[in-house]
Design a protein that fits this description.
The chain has about 270 residues and is α/β, with parallel strands linked by helices. Helices cover about 35% and strands about 20% of the residues. The protein has one domain: Rossmann fold. It contains ten helices and eight strands. It has an eight-stranded mixed sheet with strand order 3-2-1-4-5-7-6-8, with helices on both faces. α4 links the parallel β4 and β5.
């Protein structure tokens, strides 16, 4: 019976790209300790199940919990555009893989994540990386980013599966840093072959970024911009398909620490 259940669980639908799914599992495998984890949106529970196998105490959350198919894990009804039905300081980790771009209220979502995370809690997010050079070139020529390929359907009144809010790395950083988090790690799941073919544009974009940011007059933001420019020029952002960010709940008055890039991480984290 147990082998039959495992066979069914292995066939659960993975909502994200398979490589994103496996990269996120690698990141969670490398976390120094386990704890209580909220996995949203949970879908059928493919990621929740794997995280539970690692030793995390997983609770799924989804706008339609009836869709969840892991019988021994719980899944609560949770609309990420609204207040979570969760008490303050309840979780050590939150995983949100390929969910942010579907939300109407990204600011409200991040604030809710901070509210329900415990002191020092970890938020792991992924979203399409619209800043890779292939996506930028597609936008230049067509007006549409990669993975946001056409106008949204104005006649679909429930666009829960549509990508409605693309977000760049620097916008996500702003969203996190102004709402009680600090970004600790930026990585990706795979290198886009189409982006590699445009590598000759790398020095031009580096120069353009530097010229764009030089007009900042706030010295604190100038320091932040140097780090932003460093990350935007990284392999993860310039060539990567998916933007994957780890952020930690920041205590009031705590200083922001430098962001770690995949290339600067221990080898077990940058696979």
């Amino acid at each position: 019976m147990e082998s039959q259940l495992r066979a069914r669980l292995e066939k659960l639908q993975i909502l994200a790209h398979e490589k994103t799914h496996h990269k996120v599992l690698t990141l969670f495998e490398s976390m120094p300790c386990r704890g209580k984890l909220l996995e949203i949106p949970a879908g059928e529970g493919a990621l929740a199940w794997r995280l539970a196998e690692m030793g995390y105490e997983v609770v799924g959350g989804d706008v339609d919990p009836d869709f969840f198919k892991v019988p021994y894990l719980s899944c609560i009804r949770l609309d990420m555009n609204h207040v979570f039905p969760v008490e303050d300081n309840s979780y050590d980790y939150i995983s949100c893989i390929e969910g942010l771009e579907h939300l109407e209220n990204q600011f409200g979502f991040i604030r809710e994540c901070r509210r329900v995370l415990k002191k020092g809690g970890i938020l792991v997010l992924s979203t399409p990386n619209i800043l890779n050079i292939a996506s930028r070139m597609k936008y230049l020529l067509s007006g549409f980013f990669s993975l946001f390929p056409r106008p949204l359907n104005e006649f679909n009144l429930t666009p829960v599966f549509d990508h409605i809010n693309p977000i760049t790395y620097y916008q996500l950083r702003f969203l996190l840093h102004t709402n009680g988090f600090r970004v600790t790690t930026v990585t990706t799941d795979l290198i886009r072959r189409g982006a590699l073919g445009l590598s000759f544009l790398y020095p031009i974009t580096r120069l353009a970024m530097k010229r764009t940011m030089r007009k900042e007059t706030d010295l604190r933001q100038c320091r932040a911009n140097r780090e932003i420019r460093h990350v935007m020029g990284s392999v993860a952002i310039f060539w990567g398909r998916t933007l994957i960010v780890i952020a930690q709940k920041k205590e009031e008055g705590a200083d922001l620490l430098p962001t770690t890039l995949a290339s600067e991480m221990p080898s077990n984290l940058s696979k």
